[in-house]
């Protein structure tokens, strides 16, 4: 049997002080269990990614890293959003491990599904998607909107795995190729299927959040869907083109009808129909311009080539400022 793979569990954190002290020991317990079962190397790590939190999240991460060598952490210079936080952790991990598993720190995703993920990797899969088997813990409205999210995404051309969020195992082989994707507007759920390689899914039941409040209300889910669609597909523009052709055809028929009616001497006052048509076409035009503008804006952001994340601190590194402070204390 070859060397056991090194696993890094990548956990994005934003204002998670209420839940971190509860969920962190669960991750440590799991990684120790996988080491004991001889599925992964003892050099495996739990990487917390602080996404510019405003509370004591980074202080807790730093404290945890001092208690056990398996805990490590990086901190972004400011809040960059969930997707960029996950990306930062994956890019940090890719040269230091064989496999990564990204997961949120709120305890909703079943940690025990990691066993099956690692098994699938050992059986030859390079990507293993964590997929919810059912949504019994969600309200009817949450379930409807969440499942609708995935259906709309696929309908609009963004290739996503149904009921999969960002709980997945990805090998370093895949990550090294994924690093060639340089776009600023990222949507990880749709990007990893584009990389290819052998993949499979592991199904699990999602739990209630351990503590704190969800950082993904309906407003953010709609924004995520919009970003995902416009980042991964041009179908909305094609849809506008097709819809414009249909409206144009209807308008041409309307012109013919108006001319024929006028020549027949059957014209009547029709201000209501005119107002309705003008309002309808005006609304369609503004909506179309908005969608096209969204694409233009994303193109504008891509041309700037700004960094997608900036790491300001690592728990295993000391900045020059820290060395100066220590020297002053020793004097």
* Counted beta strands: 8
Low-pLDDT segments: none
Q: Which band does the percent of strand residues land in?
A: 5-15%
Largest sheet: 8 strands, mixed
Physical arrangement of strands within the biggest beta sheet: 7-5-6-4-1-2-3-8
Instruction: Characterize the quaternary organization of these chains.
Output: single chain
Core attributes:
331 residues, alpha/beta, Spore Coat Polysaccharide Biosynthesis Protein SpsA, Chain A, 14% strand
In short:
The protein is α/β, with parallel strands linked by helices and 331 residues long. The radius of gyration is 25 Å and the shape is elongated.
Describe the SSE topology:
Layout: E1 7-13, H1 17-36, E2 45-50, H2 57-67, E3 71-76, H3 82-93, E4 99-102, H4 113-122, E5 127-132, H5 140-155, E6 164-171, H6 172-178, H7 188-195, E7 199-204, H8 218-232, H9 235-263, H10 271-304, E8 311-314, H11 320-330
Helix pairs in contact: 1-2, 5-8
Report on this model:
- The protein is of the alpha/beta class.
- The protein has a domain at 7-232: Alpha-Beta Complex (Spore Coat Polysaccharide Biosynthesis Protein SpsA, Chain A).
- The chain is 52% helix and 14% strand.
- It has 11 helices and 8 strands.
- It has helices at residues 17-36, 57-67, 82-93, 113-122, 140-155, 172-178, 188-195, 218-232, 235-263, 271-304, 320-330, and strands at 7-13, 45-50, 71-76, 99-102, 127-132, 164-171, 199-204, 311-314.
- An 8-stranded mixed beta sheet has the order 7-5-6-4-1-2-3-8, sandwiched between helices.
- Helix 1 runs parallel beside helix 2 and helix 5 (140-155) runs parallel beside helix 8 (218-232).
- The longest helix has 34 residues, at 271-304.
- It is elongated, with a radius of gyration of 25 Å.
